[in-house]
Amino acid sequence: MPLDLDADVVALTEAVVDIESVSRNEQQLCDDIEQALRDLPHLEVTRIGHSLVARTELGRDERVVIAGHIDTVPLNDNLPARNDGTLLHGLGTCDMKGGVAVALKLAHDVVEPNRDVTYVFYEAEEIDDVFNGLGIVAAKRPELVQADFAILMEPSDAVVEAGCQGTLRVDVITRGERAHSARAWRGSNAIHAAGEVLRRLSDYEPRKPVIDGLEYHEGLNAVMISGGVATNVLPDECVVAVNYRYAPDRSEQEALAFVEEVFDGFELRVTDSAPGALPGLGVPAARDFVAAVGGEPNPKFGWTDVARFTGLGIPAVNFGPGDPMLAHKQEEHVPLEQLRSCEAKLRSWLGHDQ
Amino acid sequence: MPLDLDADVVALTEAVVDIESVSRNEQQLCDDIEQALRDLPHLEVTRIGHSLVARTELGRDERVVIAGHIDTVPLNDNLPARNDGTLLHGLGTCDMKGGVAVALKLAHDVVEPNRDVTYVFYEAEEIDDVFNGLGIVAAKRPELVQADFAILMEPSDAVVEAGCQGTLRVDVITRGERAHSARAWRGSNAIHAAGEVLRRLSDYEPRKPVIDGLEYHEGLNAVMISGGVATNVLPDECVVAVNYRYAPDRSEQEALAFVEEVFDGFELRVTDSAPGALPGLGVPAARDFVAAVGGEPNPKFGWTDVARFTGLGIPAVNFGPGDPMLAHKQEEHVPLEQLRSCEAKLRSWLGHDQ
Question: Residue B315 CB: number of other CB atoms within 10 A?
Fold first, then answer.
């Protein structure tokens, strides 16, 4: 069944949510979006992998990007979507198919925006950076995403969230020597050695710097742990994957130096690193947008592709329906009212009041 | 090619090793052993699955079991056997086809032993207990394995190893609450909670009780650890698989009570439990055997089917060629001299000096 972009934003969100698109399984949803946009005469559509770029080409003075990832974290017994009249519940409702649906509505309805718009619907944001659809598009066709300003429709409770924290992931590795578990004294247990890694994580006290009036809140967490050879063998390796989320006043290098200090004496392997982005609310395009949609900007804790836009020299903010605290939670949901208000505010900003 | 039981024990071991019999693939080897023993007039042969029982029926006052499993752990690029003149190398040479070959030689050559002998060649010792051929024979035909004493030809460096440690495996489970790792304060980290589990493991002091003059050495070890949902999510569960190897003065219930005390406050799930076996060296048949083969008995650390015989009310010891430390290792091997000395000592004990 094709996506119906004439439906209202709530019905459209529900339809998009019900097309399951856990990372690496975005093909169907991308096909459906492509089919819905491809033949609209006011859009120029380019597909790269399972990411789609749709641009108006009106020759306006200003061009803005409105972007959203179409993948979700894994299923957690939370599909299909359920509309209780106030909230829409289900995987991706909050992060971030509500935002995707708003962008789809705008792409379909706003045929003559007052600034040129580049819509980007992209794959694989929730997994390893190397797969990130926005990164791939920017690498292969940088001219497609060039703009004066970007709005990433990540959940932000329908207020502007500025800046974003950086993220660093390292494997902390402990080693031992295998032995039969009946003769443990002949070997050395790598899992036991990881106890000290977990102790340092428990002792960690988060930093909370204030930047441009926004208070950030860092975090250092084990996100994965694995070790073991067989149920009767002392393990010779244990790997703790640690994720450091840091305020944007630290560079990637400073973040790594901090983590190296915390795990001094342990073997480290960096597996992922993405810098934060300073709020940048002083930039005129950002200031205009904040004034247009109203409200008091918040700091962004989660890493988002705002930082990728910053890296491309494009000022960017998060602005989308849904409570960011609910992202990646089984019970994620989005208020129907926020879907409608985000759509209305952006529509108005693009000069297309209903 | 049929097994040649007239060959010497070294050649026979090599032939048995070269018939690959990784657990669940014992049919060929069992067929070959059956063919070699079936028509010997002094033996009564019964096959159950791929396990074979061969009994002398001389009406002696005493009956002993001589048993060995015919399966091996998985291939590890270590077949065929290789004889370097001092050692025979290859999968199963140590654990325990050397012992099987010694038993085959005795079964073939010792036609009038001074005590009745029940030879048991059985399948599937290296895998889940439910498949164990000795267990199946004892369950289906208990009268076939009844005896006054049992010798399990597991590798013991050709000296008597008495008793065996029990083994208990539990999963120690910690729970938390998922949250995006950028907003860690909204959730609770199950991997961090496992730090306390690892701390208690590190603090553990092994008990080393002396039983019948033999010093045992317990062990409490994490053998597996796993936790994590995604690289940007606080994990809500972490599972530490812990293996407790305990001296045979503790029952299965006492072992579990000890582990429950160590991990007081944590959720436990028992995944495997097998009791130890007391050395039982005070039993006359055991004392006679030790006197006959000489040397100082050692305690057995690894779990073996000695405990199964104990459960059947049959005193039992391990006595076989090969270093038990080499069991399950790629480089396992057996000294030719131990093959010959084990054969000679058992032959003598059965009143059949060459």
Answer: 24
Q: Coil, strand, or helix at residue B151?
A: strand
How many C-beta atoms lie closer than 10 Å to residue B194's C-beta? 29
Q: Mean pLDDT across chain B, nearest whole number? A: 95
Q: What is the end-to-end Cα distance of chain B in Å, rounded?
A: 27
Distance CA B197, CA B164 (A): 27
**B75: which residues sit within 8 A by CB, 6+ positions away?**
B20, B22, B91
Core vs surface per residue B34-64: b (16+ CB within 10 A) or e: bebbeeeebbebebbbbbbbbbbeeeeeebb
Q: What's the first-to-final CA gap in chain A, in angstroms?
A: 28
Q: A220: Cβ–Cβ under 8 A, 6 or more apart, which residues?
A: A201, A204, A206, A242, A243, A244, A245, A259, A262, B184
**A180 pLDDT tier (thresholds 50, 70, 90):** confident
Q: How far apart are CA A94 and CA A77, in angstroms?
A: 16
Q: Which of B165, B222, B235 sits opposite A223 (nearest CB)?
A: B235
Amino acid at A69: H
Best of B178, B233, B318, B332 to substitute, by most chain A Cβ atoms within 10 angstroms, is: B233
Structure tokens at B227: 């936790």
pLDDT interval class at A284 (50, 70, 90) = confident
CB B81 within 8 A of CB B12: no
- What is the ipTM, given to two decimal places? 0.79
Query: Is A22 buried (19+), middle (13-18) or exposed (0-12) by CB count in 10 A?
Result: middle
Instruction: Supply the pLDDT for residue A1.
Output: 79
Contacts for B245 with CB less than 8 Å, ≥ 6 apart: A181, A182, A184, B165, B166, B167, B218, B219, B220, B301, B303
The rounded mean pLDDT for chain A is 95
Active-site residue identified among A125, A237, A332, A343: A125
